[in-house]
């Protein structure tokens, strides 16, 4: 652990906030169109309808805010899922959220000819919600309701089911493939601020709720038996966690599509910084998740410029080495 007292943890959070602000500035300034920080400031103080000012105001600022919001939401979701399932490799996809959202989008395109990112957002949110509710419902049935292994297995089964349906629809409707492929890879490119504002209340509610239940998550992390012995209502807290995950992960996939690895990697980095206390872990993970997705998005603009790589590909590229390290470390312990 790098920081092990209140003062040092506070300093770590403040440093992360400063880095996040710098990353937002970099995201706004750098890209295919040549701009500067001065140009960015003038876009809001001395707007002259130039191409540079329009790009900054209408494209880059919404893109930076979306990347920061989605990164924070996915990281918080990863923290909650890893604590809930006691699985160090757990992520938002464990509830079938990504696959459920992807299937809903492809289904709506194939059968209802729906297109457009604004329409995709609400359809994806609906699909993610249905998938997560189905997983929670399945895992809560039987004698031992919502045990970590049951949640994990139910999520894996639903993810496989929805992924198979999605691939089947795309295989029989090749005309729809190009339209949805970029969305399925995960991207913040071309997203308008209206898409974020439409789901932002759900994201904000999820952030606040995650902070509010952080003391309960500390108890839950001790194990179900100990938590029950300390008076924690396991069923209630697991349902609340499930709702928060739906709000955050569902809202994120609605805005940016399925973006992987942030929910897996960031919680482990945050734990190295501030330890396992969720009152510190959740805000630190949120900041680091925002920073990582902003950096990945900026990098995605330069790999094959003037074209762009979907940011979901970049997060996979960045996150894969960490994923392998975490997996190997877990196997050694086992």
UniProtKB/TrEMBL annotation:
<feature type="transmembrane region" description="Helical">
    <location>
        <begin position="193"/>
        <end position="215"/>
    </location>
</feature>
<dbReference type="GO" id="GO:0033214">
    <property type="term" value="P:siderophore-iron import into cell"/>
</dbReference>
<feature type="transmembrane region" description="Helical">
    <location>
        <begin position="64"/>
        <end position="84"/>
    </location>
</feature>
<feature type="transmembrane region" description="Helical">
    <location>
        <begin position="119"/>
        <end position="139"/>
    </location>
</feature>
<feature type="transmembrane region" description="Helical">
    <location>
        <begin position="12"/>
        <end position="33"/>
    </location>
</feature>
<keyword id="KW-1003">Cell membrane</keyword>
<keyword id="KW-0813">Transport</keyword>
<dbReference type="GO" id="GO:0005886">
    <property type="term" value="C:plasma membrane"/>
</dbReference>
<dbReference type="InterPro" id="IPR000522">
    <property type="entry name" value="ABC_transptr_permease_BtuC"/>
</dbReference>
<comment type="similarity">
    <text>Belongs to the binding-protein-dependent transport system permease family. FecCD subfamily.</text>
</comment>
<feature type="transmembrane region" description="Helical">
    <location>
        <begin position="280"/>
        <end position="303"/>
    </location>
</feature>
<dbReference type="InterPro" id="IPR037294">
    <property type="entry name" value="ABC_BtuC-like"/>
</dbReference>
<feature type="transmembrane region" description="Helical">
    <location>
        <begin position="90"/>
        <end position="112"/>
    </location>
</feature>
<keyword id="KW-0472">Membrane</keyword>
<keyword id="KW-1133">Transmembrane helix</keyword>
<dbReference type="Pfam" id="PF01032">
    <property type="entry name" value="FecCD"/>
</dbReference>
<feature type="transmembrane region" description="Helical">
    <location>
        <begin position="151"/>
        <end position="172"/>
    </location>
</feature>
<feature type="transmembrane region" description="Helical">
    <location>
        <begin position="309"/>
        <end position="327"/>
    </location>
</feature>
<keyword id="KW-0812">Transmembrane</keyword>
<protein>
    <submittedName>
        <fullName>Iron ABC transporter</fullName>
    </submittedName>
</protein>
<feature type="transmembrane region" description="Helical">
    <location>
        <begin position="235"/>
        <end position="268"/>
    </location>
</feature>
<dbReference type="GO" id="GO:0022857">
    <property type="term" value="F:transmembrane transporter activity"/>
</dbReference>
